[in-house]
Every structure is written in structure tokens, then in C-alpha cells.
User: Which sequence fits this backbone?
């Protein structure tokens, strides 16, 4: 059974597997963005075109789901970094996995629920922050009882379900992809000698290609839902509050 390498420091447990994978992918995102953005020109070169396309693509996600213009300005960079970071972390385990006996040192960080829950918590905390900035503490808390008072427990539960669905959807897809790739590469490849070994090779390549697609979709879905949740905090409640004031 695969186990992540965990060490203790000052009474706290640290998952070295997640730390290594996240750090490597953070460096990869930084270096690639640095390379793409070098020598910015009025007449864009190929690298600059790729970089500008990525920015426009992410800005489109933000604008489609967050109507508040001020919030869009603050969220564009967050969404851009979040998309690239999650995309690279989703792909890591498909192409590189470092194991020593049963201990795993490098795999996709998003195949760990702690990592995906951390991203989900960041999004929810940002949504709370923008909501409080938009309406004030009192106005924001009152929105949990809108449009009618009995919606209060339902709206509170919704915060927890948003957190779980946002994090576990990403974790489940990436974890399942890595498990199936392991089954093809280890169990199937060695199940029946040369025949299954030859059969497993193209299957593994096909599944890797499909996993790249799934990892890309999941990065897109995560960022889109993040913007939807934040957009609701600065838009939906505003319209509800405005209608109540007018009435």
C-alpha cells in the first residue's frame, strides 16, 4: 500500500510528498510564466501570444461569472495563478512518480484531499472577504436569512457543501486517474507475461492522454466554480438586499 512520507516538527505533521510536489509545480509555473512574458513587444511574438491567450482565457472565466467590476480586477490574477497551479499539479503524477518501497515522495498533490481542501478553503475565505467588503459584516450576515428567515440553516449548510463539492470533485478525479494508471502499469503489465506487458503499454499511453484532458477540465471547473461562488457573494446578495430596501 502506498504511503505518503510524513514527518513531525514542533508537534505538527508535515506531508513531505505534498510539499515536494507543490514546490516543484510552483517553480514550474513561475519559470514558464517568466519565459513566456520575457521581452514583451508591441508586435507579440509566439511566446507572448500564448501568454496573452492564457490571460484572456482566464479573464473570460472571471468576467462570465463575476459581474462586479471591482471584484473582477482583484480576482483576475488569483484565477490565473490558481488555474495554472492546479493544472500543473494535476499532470505531475501522470508523468512522474517517485517511490521508495511503499513510500511515495512525488505524485500529483491534487491526488491528496488535504491539498484540494486547502484550495477550496482559499476560495471560500476569499468569497467571505469580498462579501464582507461589499455589504459590511452586518449586511453580509443578514444575507444568510434571505429571502426568508427559514433559509438560514439551508444557506449555512450550503457553505459546507460548496467546500466539499469543490474540493472532493478535484481530488476524486485526479486520484482515480492515478490509481487506474498504477493498475495498468503494475498489475495488468505483470499479470500474464509478455502479452499483457505489450497490451499495457498502449493502454497506459492512452490513459495518460485522457488524464491530461481530465486534469485540464478539472482545473477549468475548479476555477469556474470558484468564480461562481465568489460572484454570488458580491452580486446575488446585493440584488436581494436592494429589492428588500426598495420594498
Assistant:
Amino acid at each position: 500500500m502506498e504511503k505518503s512520507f510524513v514527518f513531525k516538527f514542533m508537534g505538527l505533521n508535515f506531508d513531505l510528498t505534498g510539499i515536494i510536489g507543490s514546490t516543484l509545480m510552483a517553480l514550474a509555473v513561475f519559470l514558464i510564466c517568466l519565459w513566456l512574458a520575457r521581452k514583451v513587444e508591441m508586435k507579440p511574438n509566439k511566446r507572448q501570444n500564448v501568454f496573452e491567450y492564457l490571460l484572456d482565457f482566464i479573464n473570460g472565466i472571471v468576467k462570465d461569472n463575476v459581474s462586479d467590476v471591482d471584484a473582477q480586477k482583484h480576482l483576475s490574477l488569483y484565477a490565473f495563478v490558481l488555474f495554472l497551479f492546479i493544472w500543473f499539479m494535476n499532470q505531475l503524477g501522470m508523468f512522474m512518480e517517485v517511490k521508495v518501497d511503499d513510500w511515495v515522495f512525488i505524485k500529483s498533490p491534487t491526488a491528496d484531499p488535504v491539498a484540494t481542501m486547502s484550495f477550496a478553503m482559499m476560495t471560500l475565505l476569499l468569497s467571505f472577504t469580498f462579501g464582507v467588503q461589499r455589504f459590511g459584516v452586518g449586511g453580509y450576515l443578514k444575507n444568510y436569512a434571505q429571502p426568508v428567515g427559514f433559509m438560514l440553516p439551508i444557506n449555512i449548510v450550503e457553505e459546507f457543501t460548496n467546500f466539499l463539492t469543490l474540493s472532493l470533485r478535484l481530488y476524486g478525479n485526479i486520484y482515480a486517474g492515478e490509481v487506474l494508471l498504477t493498475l495498468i502499469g503494475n498489475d495488468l503489465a505483470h499479470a500474464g507475461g509478455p502479452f499483457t506487458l505489450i497490451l499495457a503499454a498502449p493502454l497506459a499511453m492512452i490513459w495518460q492522454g485522457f488524464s491530461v484532458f481530465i486534469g485540464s477540465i478539472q482545473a477549468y471547473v475548479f476555477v469556474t466554480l470558484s468564480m461562481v461562488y465568489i460572484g454570488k457573494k458580491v452580486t446575488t446578495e446585493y440584488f436581494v438586499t436592494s429589492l428588500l430596501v426598495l420594498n
